Amino acid sequence: xxxxxxxRQVPSLEDDxxxxxxxxxxxxxxTRITVRPLTPADRPxxxxxxxxxxxxxxxxxxxxxxxxxxxxxxAAAEAPEPAxxxxxxxxxxxxxxxxxLSLNPMRDYFTGLDRAYISVLVVAEEAEGRGxxxxxxxxxxA
Length: 142
Prior knowledge:
CATH superfamily: Gcn5-related N-acetyltransferase (GNAT)
Number of domains: 1
CATH topology: Aminopeptidase
Distance between the termini: 15 Å
Order of helices and strands: EEEHHEEEH
Strand order of the largest sheet: 3-4-5-6
Number of helices: 3
Oligomer: single chain
Shape: globular
Structural class: alpha+beta
Number of strands: 6
C-alpha cells in the first residue's frame, strides 16, 4: 500500500477477475499499472498519442481538423484547461507511459452535488488490451 494520496491503487485485470494492485512494486510487477498526476515532463508523451482522440466522424458532426487542433493545444498545455481539471498518467511496471485521463469537475444541475466528467481517455496503441483504460476508469471512480 502507498500513503501518497496522489497515487491510488488501481485494479488490474487478471484471469480470475479484478484484483487490486498497489502502486508499490509487487511480486507480479509485469501486470502493474500505476496512475499518477500528469506532470509537465509527461506532455511529450501526451502529444504523441493525442491524435488518437480525433475521430473520423462524430455524432455532433464536429470538424475533425478543429478537434485535432484543440486536442493538440490541450496536450501541449497551450490552451487553458477548465478550472479544477485534473489530468493523470497511467504508467507500466518500468515507468513507461501508457495512457492519459483528464477529469473536469462540475456541479449537477438537478441535485447540486459535485461530480466530474471524463474529457480525455486515451491509451497508446502499443498498450491496448493491457487493462490501461480500465485502470484509468477505476482511478476516475475512486
